[in-house]
Design brief:
Layout (H helix, E strand, L loop, with lengths): L3 H6 L5 E3 L9 H9 L4 E4 L5 H14 L4 E6 L9 H18 L14 H11 L3 E5 L5 H9 L3 E6 L2 H9 L4 E5 L5 E2 L14 H11 L4 E4 L5 H9 L4 E4 L13 H9 L5 E3 L7 E3 L3 H5 L10 H15 L22 H16 L3
Parallel strand pairs: 1-9, 2-3, 3-4, 4-5, 5-6, 6-8, 8-9
Antiparallel strand pairs: 7-11, 10-11
Helix pairs in contact: 2-3, 3-5, 4-12, 9-13
Bound molecules: flavin mononucleotide (FMN).
Length: 351
């Protein structure tokens, strides 16, 4: 596997801090990782174009190094049926009452403004753009390349990786089953797209010409070294950065990561799309209701999640975490990057 992705960007380390939408990947975190020699990533999935512009401006105040911006490609969707929506509104009502919120209601604007966001990315010209949940149109990839922006797509299967390579992405992120957060799966059923990270990395590495970036459950330098040995050109770590002081991880979320006893599970409770997180009361109590098509449920649970974070109620909060969450370290991001690379080198170099 060629290390060209790292060389092209002039990165000191083949390490990406994963984009994590929802306020975790603050400009301070992104800049600290990029300044330390990795590639910091802004998860812009739920931002407005204006907020993205501000976040990018702040990263540039703090760093002159390359960084990445990430968006979710909206999957094809259709509105939920009236009865299905009503069932969710009824089920959410008692939680709203507990949190002192007005009764739940579907917001007028449900869909994320993807076209507008992509136009903002083209204007802002980050060094790298990555996407998940789908594939861009060929013209969109070409427009990004014309502006000198490198493009990464997210694959959870060999088939998805092949499709992304045909789209001329510069590298493919292999999201293994251990990964925290939403599954990026966009071809075929989610259940058939749960290959462990090292296996998926090796499969994609053998089949594709573009570099493969291993992602999912990688927490220390030994994990990083193993992924590189499996054929990765770089690694992408999310959960490992959640406890960094620069991360926007809320206080109850941090506490859950530090004290959580149960293993992370796949759940659709918060957004209607499978995502790996720490199990909690809300996820258990609504598990029997069929999920609404994405992004309806995501839009519907947004007030609940925001209020739960403010009111220190981890039992109603999406607590995304990969399987390795117990090994997350509460270190400043720059120290974590240096430490990960030192450990990886020690594991790779005999003696
Ligand atoms: C809190 C959280 C939020 C995430 N948000 C995004 C996102 O906005 N876009 C994306 O492509 N991936 C997102 N992911 C998935 C990561 O890109 C990556 O696949 C995952 O973090 C790797 O597994 P790990 O958490 O075990 O390192 C998120 C992951 C977490 C933990």
């Amino acid at each position: 596997m060629s290390p060209s992705f790292q060389q092209q960007l002039g990165l000191r380390f083949p390490l990406i801090q994963a984009p994590m939408a929802g306020g975790v990947t603050t400009p301070e975190l992104v800049a600290a990782v990029s300044n330390a020699g990795g590639l910091g990533s802004l998860g812009a999935g739920y931002l407005s174009a204006e907020a993205l512009g501000e976040a990018v401006g702040r990263v540039r105040e703090l760093s002159d190094q390359p960084f990445l911006v990430n968006l979710f490609v909206p999957p094809p969707t259709q509105p939920p049926g009236v009865a299905q929506l009503q069932a969710w509104l009824e089920r959410l009502a008692p939680y709203h009452l507990q949190l002192g919120l007005p009764p739940p209601a579907l917001p007028v604007e449900v869909a994320e403004p993807f076209e507008e966001m992509l136009a903002a990315v083209l204007r802002l010209r980050p060094a790298v753009f990555s996407f998940a949940f789908g594939a861009l149109e060929p013209g969109q990839v070409a427009a990004l390349h014309e502006r000198g922006i490198r493009v990464l797509g997210t694959a959870t299967t060999l088939e998805e990786g092949r499709m992304l390579e045909e789209l001329h992405v510069n590298a493919v992120v292999a999201q293994g089953s251990e990964a925290g957060g939403h599954r990026g799966t966009f071809l075929g059923p989610f259940e058939a797209a749960l290959t462990p990270t090292l296996t998926l990395t090796a499969q994609l590495g053998a089949a594709l010409r573009v570099p493969v970036i291993a992602s999912g459950g990688l927490m220390d330098g030994q994990d990083v070294a193993r992924a590189m040995q499996a054929g990765a050109g770089a690694v992408q770590l999310g959960t490992a950065f959640l406890l960094c002081p620069e991360a926007g991880t809320s206080a109850p979320y941090r506490a859950a990561l530090q004290h959580g006893r149960e293993s992370p599970q796949l759940m659709s409770a918060y957004s209607g799309r499978p995502a790996r997180g720490l199990p909690n009361a809300f996820a258990r109590e609504v598990a029997d209701l069929p999920p609404l098509p994405y992004p309806y449920q995501h839009a519907l649970t947004r007030p609940l999640r925001a209020a739960a974070a403010r009111q220190d109620r981890p039992e109603m909060l999406s607590l995304w975490a990969g399987t390795g969450f117990r090994r997350a370290r509460a270190l400043p991001a720059a120290e974590l990057v240096t430490e990960l690379m030192r450990e990886a080198a020690a594991f790779t170099t005999p003696g």
